[in-house]
Description:
Elements: H1 8-19, E1 26-30, H2 37-52, H3 55-66, E2 73-76, H4 93-104, E3 114-119, H5 126-137, E4 143-149, H6 157-161, E5 164-167, H7 173-183, H8 189-199, H9 203-211, H10 218-226, H11 232-242, H12 246-267, H13 282-287, H14 293-312, H15 317-326
Parallel strand pairs: 1-4, 1-5, 2-3, 3-4
Amino acid sequence: MNNLIGFDKSFNKLLENYKSMNLHSSIIFYGPKGIGKRKFINNFINEIIKINFELNDFAHHNNLFLKNTHPNIMMLEREIDSKTKKLKKNINIDQIRILKKFINESASLKKMSKFIIFDSADDLNINSANSLLKNLEEPNKNTFIFLICHNLSSLIPTIRSRCLKIKMNKHNLNDFKKILLDNIDIDNDDDINFLYDISHGSPGIAISLYEGDILDTFDITVTSLISNEINKDKVNLSNLLADLENDRFQNYLSFLKSILIILNKIKDNNYDSNYFLSKKLNILNNASNHLTKKNIIDRFDFLINNEKDLFTYNLDKKLFMLKFLAN
Length: 327
């Protein structure tokens, strides 16, 4: 595993709790998307494997974990629908039933604890969440449930109340820069500052934006936002985005929402231009003069209300963007 940057204190405390047999049975790791919650857990379990197995066995067990085939570790994520070949909307109750069987079976490897990882718990629906509750209320000995959560309020209160909660804040610029330099080839300080501003300090989001060439759309996105009519820029932007794969288009929508959030803060006088680390984002300070607060909020609401349907029903991306820009 790569070195963990930015969360050393929480990591060391958690590891010490495990070694002293004082680790809470159910833990929610919550904070902004892309800051490294999954990596934190992966590194933690990596250390547990080191503790439990001889040096010669470590590589084998770690490889099983990385391939999601380790007999003592279960990962729960949204599954691919066998009919549509797309990701399902939620972690469903059938997955929780399989989880319960996994928990109640005798451990395949007696010397190591069982670990269950939800990535992410935001994807639980009401039925699967309620089904999970009993395991949180009556935890099995030497079994630990880790729930990754991007938005704590998305979890039902009864789940939140039964878990230890570890908040993971966004990275400072120095840690953010270290993570970026470990993962992508970038050497322009203002580009790093721009990624920090637009991702709100989330390295995972920043890396996705950089690798997906989403940043190249910044100028045409801003000019399209401030125009009052469907013009050449809006059509060109919609055409450019229409052919993107879903993952890249989702990255663009995250990018777009970040732009709207910053514009809204500027309109509220909550985002002084001196706050920007990147000179590039001063463009938004000027752009805000051409937009009303209502226009910014309406467009943000459009994305929130229609994004899920876009991917669920495989709607036309070009038409989606033209409707968005027409608001």
